[in-house]
Write a structure and sequence with these properties.
Immunoglobulin-like; 16 strands; 4-stranded antiparallel β-sheet; 5-stranded antiparallel β-sheet
Length: 483
């Protein structure tokens, strides 16, 4: 019997320790630069999104910042729209719309959002461009990383890091500029008077941009983003995805341009590996659909270039559906199959929510009112036996012009409001109005002790030159009669 294993090794004195790693070492990905139709679209969206993000806080509207979420003043300005915390329902509707739009878009076209407009993709593209400018394309970057440290390597690596940090900090500064007026924020930075919270969020968001786009990159898409994990629940066989035409491409292999494919028993794939080299997540799309694929279409552009050089038809790697690939469907047939029950349900729900939000915004009152009772004195008897209740009304003017309001109380006979004049409220401001509501003693006696329903009618008076008419809000409350 041949003894082997740990016991035999121990008997012979040949005992060696073996370390088994439970974690695979992360392989650094060096994506190659690519040009083509989809790359052009990707850069167009980079420019569009970043011009919007960096430029919007500097845009003025009615002598103020056009888009500002002023948390301190509890005002949210979106061009001509002024929102208050009480308008939180609109944010909820916006989030629901975003969710259903994501479901619809994913069911139809897969992860196009990830590949073209996601902030992680956009900033990774920008940071990669900076890296290519300073360190070169894929092969040069790999050689530079493998080379020993020198003054030239330090200058390239250090310069890249300085630009990355500057871009991250500028991004953090712009992000905070949506919550603190950006001109005021810039003055605070210049004078070294930045507040603690502004400093924290500028550094936090800047560091997040620097780390995610500069170092983590594809790991965010593969391991940190939940969308990569649950996207398969929204895919079906008619979802548009990046597809490799295995029937046309296999068997793959190298060959010359004039090689007879039938004689050599070869498909159109020349096995150049460029589709892997350009992939930002480092996958081989020829292995089929993988959750790491973000549908950036870099492999489509580079493969089309190879096909043109080999004088083969384009589209060996292309956007297509699984049913389209297997059944050889035309684009018209795939378009018809796009209108399937899932897509129609998503579209209907999304359309209804958008319409409801639009109608709600169009019918939104130009002011809001909160009624608060004076807890210190619920009810009291004043001169001549009149019963008086004290209230505080908060009137919030959601327009950007001065408005005046008339307040009337109703509920019990002869009820009167002790308010001598109409209330003026400045543009996009809120004002607390203390007032007393009284009823005669005979009315109080007839009503009896306890609480009685009443309501405040607040009417906006038309005083501006813009033709804004009157508008009335009714707020319910209670009137207390003491025993």
């Amino acid at each position: 019997m041949n003894d082997s294993g740990p016991s035999a090794a121990a008997a012979t004195g040949d005992v060696r320790e073996q370390v088994v790693s439970l974690y695979q070492k992360q392989r650094k990905i060096y994506p190659r630069a690519v040009s083509g139709w989809f790359a052009g679209w990707r850069w167009a969206l980079v420019w569009a999104t970043q011009l919007l993000f960096y430029g919007l806080p500097w845009l003025e509207w009615n002598a103020r910042q056009a888009v500002l979420f002023d948390l301190g003043a509890r005002r949210f300005y979106i061009f001509g729209l002024v929102l208050y915390p009480q308008d939180f329902i609109y944010l909820t509707a916006l989030l629901v719309i975003s969710a259903y739009a994501l479901f619809l878009f994913t069911a139809v076209a897969g992860r196009l959002w990830c590949g073209f407009a996601c902030p992680q993709t956009v900033y990774t593209e920008i940071f990669l461009w900076i890296e290519r400018v300073l360190e070169g394309d894929r092969n040069r970057r790999m050689k530079l990383d493998a080379a020993p440290w020198s003054l030239g390597k330090l200058a390239r690596k250090g310069g890249k890091q300085v630009i990355w940090v500057a871009l991250g900090l500028w991004t953090g500064f712009t992000f905070v500029g949506y919550f603190t007026p950006i001109k005021q924020l810039a003055a605070s930075v210049v004078s070294f008077g930045l507040g603690p919270w502004e400093t924290f969020w500028t550094l936090f968001y800047g560091f997040a941009t620097y780390g995610n786009a500069g170092f983590l990159r594809e790991q965010v898409c593969k391991y940190m983003c939940p969308y990569a994990r649950f996207q398969s629940a929204m895919f079906d066989r008619d979802t548009l995805i990046i597809s490799y035409d295995e029937e046309r491409g296999e068997p793959r292999g190298t060959r010359g341009r004039k090689t007879d494919l039938k004689a050599a028993n070869l498909g159109h794939c020349i096995d150049c590996g460029l589709c892997v080299d350009v992939c930002p997540t480092g996958i081989d799309i020829r292995r089929g659909l993988q959750y790491e694929c973000i549908s950036c279409a870099a492999c489509v552009d580079v493969c089309n270039g190879v096909m043109e050089k080999m004088q083969y038809p384009r589209g060996l790697i292309r956007f297509d559906t699984q049913n389209g690939m297997q059944r050889h469907l035309t684009r018209a047939q795939e378009l018809v199959r796009m209108f399937r029950p899932r897509v129609l349900v998503y579209t209907s729900i999304l359309g209804l929510i958008v319409i409801a939000l639009g109608v709600s915004m169009a019918m939104r009152a130009p002011f809001k009112v909160d009624v608060v009772r004076d807890r210190g004195a619920l009810a009291r008897i004043v001169d001549d036996g009149w019963v008086e209740n004290v209230y505080r009304l908060q009137i919030m003017n959601t327009t950007e012009s001065v408005q005046r309001y008339r307040i009337v109380a109703a509920g019990l006979p002869s009820m009167a409001v002790d308010l001598k004049a109409e209330v003026l409220v400045e543009p996009a401001q809120a004002r607390w109005v203390p007032l007393a509501v009284r009823v005669p003693p005979e009315v109080a006696q007839q009503a009896g002790p306890g609480s009685h329903k009443m309501e405040f009618s607040i009417e906006r008076r038309a005083i501006d030159a813009e033709g804004q008419g009157s508008h009335t809000l009714v707020e319910k409350s209670t009137f207390m009669v003491p025993r």
